[in-house]
Amino acid sequence: MPRLHPDRLFPPQDPSLSLARSLHEEIAGLPIVSPHGHSDPEWFAENRNFTDATSLFLTPDHYVLRMLRSQGFSYEALGLARKGQQPTVPGIAAWKLFAANYHLFAGTPSRLWIDHAFHWAFGIEDELNAANAEAIYATITRRLGDDDLKPLAILDRANVEVIATTEFALDPLLHHRNLKSKGLNQRIRTTYRPDDVTDPENPGFIANLLRFGEVTGEDVTNWNGMIAAHAARRAFFRDNGATATDHGVPDALTDDLALHEKQRLLDGALKGTLDANGKRQFRAQMMTEMAALSADDGMVMQLHAGSNRNTDPQLMAEYGPNLGADIPTRGEFVHALQPLLSRFGAAKSFRLIVFTLDETVYARELAPMAGYWPSLLIGPPWWFHDSPQGIRRYLDQVVETAGFHNLAGFNDDTRALLSIPARHDVWRREICRFLSQMVAEHRMSLPSAREAARHMAYGAAKAAYNL
Amino acid sequence: MPRLHPDRLFPPQDPSLSLARSLHEEIAGLPIVSPHGHSDPEWFAENRNFTDATSLFLTPDHYVLRMLRSQGFSYEALGLARKGQQPTVPGIAAWKLFAANYHLFAGTPSRLWIDHAFHWAFGIEDELNAANAEAIYATITRRLGDDDLKPLAILDRANVEVIATTEFALDPLLHHRNLKSKGLNQRIRTTYRPDDVTDPENPGFIANLLRFGEVTGEDVTNWNGMIAAHAARRAFFRDNGATATDHGVPDALTDDLALHEKQRLLDGALKGTLDANGKRQFRAQMMTEMAALSADDGMVMQLHAGSNRNTDPQLMAEYGPNLGADIPTRGEFVHALQPLLSRFGAAKSFRLIVFTLDETVYARELAPMAGYWPSLLIGPPWWFHDSPQGIRRYLDQVVETAGFHNLAGFNDDTRALLSIPARHDVWRREICRFLSQMVAEHRMSLPSAREAARHMAYGAAKAAYNL
Amino acid sequence: MPRLHPDRLFPPQDPSLSLARSLHEEIAGLPIVSPHGHSDPEWFAENRNFTDATSLFLTPDHYVLRMLRSQGFSYEALGLARKGQQPTVPGIAAWKLFAANYHLFAGTPSRLWIDHAFHWAFGIEDELNAANAEAIYATITRRLGDDDLKPLAILDRANVEVIATTEFALDPLLHHRNLKSKGLNQRIRTTYRPDDVTDPENPGFIANLLRFGEVTGEDVTNWNGMIAAHAARRAFFRDNGATATDHGVPDALTDDLALHEKQRLLDGALKGTLDANGKRQFRAQMMTEMAALSADDGMVMQLHAGSNRNTDPQLMAEYGPNLGADIPTRGEFVHALQPLLSRFGAAKSFRLIVFTLDETVYARELAPMAGYWPSLLIGPPWWFHDSPQGIRRYLDQVVETAGFHNLAGFNDDTRALLSIPARHDVWRREICRFLSQMVAEHRMSLPSAREAARHMAYGAAKAAYNL
Fold first, then answer.
1. A344 to chain C, minimum CA–CA distance in Å?
2. Structural domain count of chain B
3. Could you give the dihedral angle defined by the CA atoms of residues A225, A231, A237 and A239, in that order, rounded to the nearest 10 degrees?
4. For residue C118, is it within any domain?
5. Do B364 and A387 touch (CB under 8 A)?
6. Which of A298, B291, B310, C22 is the most buried (most CB within 10 A)?
7. C-alpha torsion sign, points A425, A426, A428, A432
8. Which domain range does residue B74 map to?
């Protein structure tokens, strides 16, 4: 390639399909690295077969549930159980409702993922609809009894090199200890997510914190003791494979207070006397404390900021959290992360991976910040934005300023096991699409694009998470 | 189509032109449904010929006026009359100024709409310019005398199945009553827009509210009486064809107060003692009241939020409102709509259609919200965003999360009658473009795309507005 | 072209490459107009050869420095000197570090610019890497001794018709006076940037303002005297070629206070007693004063709003400003500019060019505002957004509402002399790309596109800056 191609940046004469294919060929076979997600560790520890199509595809998938609800179907009709009750609708009935309304998913990533899983795991080529609902249900349910669709076999088949689950600080990690005893804790890892003891807005916060003290043997009524409890618990998680922590927060706020102010906040938190502002300040300070511990123990810190949780009080009361009523809000990272980055932004062994649900911060805030601070990486498109268009907007807006080496590769972040290969497939295809266009516009050489494709598909995630 | 095409998501080898054409062929002939706009009902009730090119294309089109003003031409020179005065510049002189500067509209949707109307209604193929200004003026003005360009004939020719105008709460609906007497009130409908009596920031608010009491015979000094007045007036509007209400508000704020607080706000509003915050709270509460009435009487509620009206005090003083000085502001819907949605978000007979001028809320707020709440639909791109690029950004950002069935189809929202077929034409072409690309990338089957095209061009609007 | 092409807005059958080439052919040879930037006037006044590759490409380019730092390389290792010290690392060592990490710039505009300069000025075709680092360093350093790479020869070779530098209000303009004595001050112009005496947040503000009084002979303790000092200093800058002023501000805030309030702010500013809010109000009022002076003396006012400067306190302490730690923040222009535009938005001889780092305001605020106010133009994509994708997002979002004639053409805004032709090259290619697609979609005639291309490449900047 001449350095200055006469057609650079112009719309290419030939479509970049062959370039995309050729880039994809080289990365399609790379192992999957899944460093953040919400798989149930029991699946892998017990390795029992899944039982039926509805409990695999419908009831655990909040993307699917919310879309059906938006068209007026009740969660009860979709096979969900009210809190403390049993489902009132049989799985097959819920499945038929889902199948009859499968056209609602036209144009959505859920459709891509489900179609992928149908084909990939069950060899189903037909489009789900009311007419074939029962037949497909039967096919899936029958195949689920086979050994090659047990959870660990699915990991093998999907070529998953490593996968991380996410557990709260008080979780005893029973399944991970079981996995460890089987020598599987380098492949199936936990992640330390201490929201239960870092955010006083958590309803069980005081009890959680006291229990945290018991579990770790530290005096959590004293600020330094409480931090020591985290250090101990992080070591326990690392012992079970964790290389990272994760923090789910409504905003990215951090703080850097003097010890007496921190103790005052802790006292208030334990007495339950903090107002909303005090609670927010406690949480903000805890983020900086987590960074300090990470700089010390080398765990990678993840920040998932900007979800406004449980916006439907009725759903929360009847069915509980994580069922589709969490909605993004506007984000701000420059001022919010200033206290943390001023202290640890250039710390040698510290790494912070930030996720946003507000795409307006990609080009304005996160890409410029990640393109400066050594410790900061941008996580992949999260949640609603983990989709073909979402990935296109992300790459469009972050790469020019952050480059590829300030990105953390891909996370599937899913609760739906069979969506893992599907989601990585979409990500890899989109990476190849983006790079093929860069090459076709003479903005990047093909060798550079090959290197970037491998990095984004595999190397970046391994490096980002110290795997 | 195999479920997993090997080239899915890659840039297609062949351009999707033939797919776009084929999708468009099927929907191009569908009737136009125009459920929200600002046509003058007198046009249809009186069905008089329009008189000349200037008063048809120039003086009523704030998109055109503002662009010419931005280049330094005065509204006087463009043929507008100062308040209470007559125009000082003859129509033909204003037209020549417009024609000589028609190049300013290169790249704008105004240009697309005007070119469309020139061709569609007058058979004009030439590009307007200084040289042909008089000839084109004469051609238009002459043709406007023909019977097939009377307002009702234009609706026929454009295949308009139904069109809604917008009237304030105190409007006597003379023209709609006339239309009703002619059996036309199912085709030409009104819309209940009670901003004049719901927003205390309205300069005539107190007088309006007292008049509202007289007109309805209700005691509007009492909160429940004031709500009963709305119920009565809504019935009167429904009797004249209305199926929907519309609310033009600076932001999407809603509230849910106790009766004594509501009465206190009403007392203050009538005494003129509310401060800015109290006025805002009154307006916010009124939105929830409108939702309650809609849940009861089945009228579809539209919210047009985010225009900062009349930003040029001099223009407002000299010429009045709606002439180009309204500018969008940043929007927020998650917290703002929480009080209303917590009460009515899942109400069976309630439907809320939200419009925004802040595109950043498409993917972050509106699509996730509409993909959850049964009552919520997203309106089409509004105002400055009703354009080819605006529609592309909209589809890019809403479809993946909201699907097609949480969208309200298209509104032309225009004051310019001849732009109605032009605007629907752009929308339909953009829908076909978007879908052709989904098909070409193997993300959607052609039958699904056909179904989505018909839905977005016709069915969605009819369903959304109960037409 | 028929007015209504049957395929309008559809994806074109043939790629628009030949259209893009043909548009580009006509504008590629147009002179460069560079009305805003940060070249060092000493380069042109002294016209000395540059000395070596590192001090030309690496140490002055904060885009390059920040990316290398983001990967953990220290500014010391990159050849920078700590404040008041000499560099500790030789230029060639820093260069080798840069070369060995050149792959980090894949996909970034820095890469495009540097590759362009390598080819354009040095005939280098090879991709920089560890292996060829020393050879390329030697090639560049050797060639830099030639007469045709002296600063003025570079301007000739790049066909730069006019270039403006930027100086603070207290700058004695020694180099510009030298240039004037050589008859070069119409080609190399200064720009009046009085941030040093308009923003009390500036650390040296009080001393600066007192010095400003001495320099101009005005009583700057009196508001009107302080304004008169500006009027005098602006005349001095105009005498040295300035046609414009520039204002670097954290936000776009303007104000319009009564004289006694202004005097009170000035008194507080000089005594150092203003709080943050008072300082902001002072700065906001000064923007309106600058507009008033511009309306009077005809200097074009530029507003660069939204950079959060010096977010890394350690970098600031050790190395100083403008080294990569400035990060954009969210912007707001509608309310912020209201006081200024209400007074001068339609003033005949006033022109305001606004730049933003927050792309969300393009379609929502700036395009609608520029499409209305006669005085307002939108500046080109700034800083991180001066890139192929950044330019695409800009054109996508501003053209439909503002048209081409409310845009200010291109600024390179660079401190890196050899990036000037590279940056204008990218801009022109992107303009041709955008227009070729408008033509291919039958949204614009080819003659209109040709006219728009010339305007955006050359005419717009000359007109906007009165050059």
1. 11
2. 2
3. -120
4. yes
5. no
6. B291
7. positive
8. 49-149
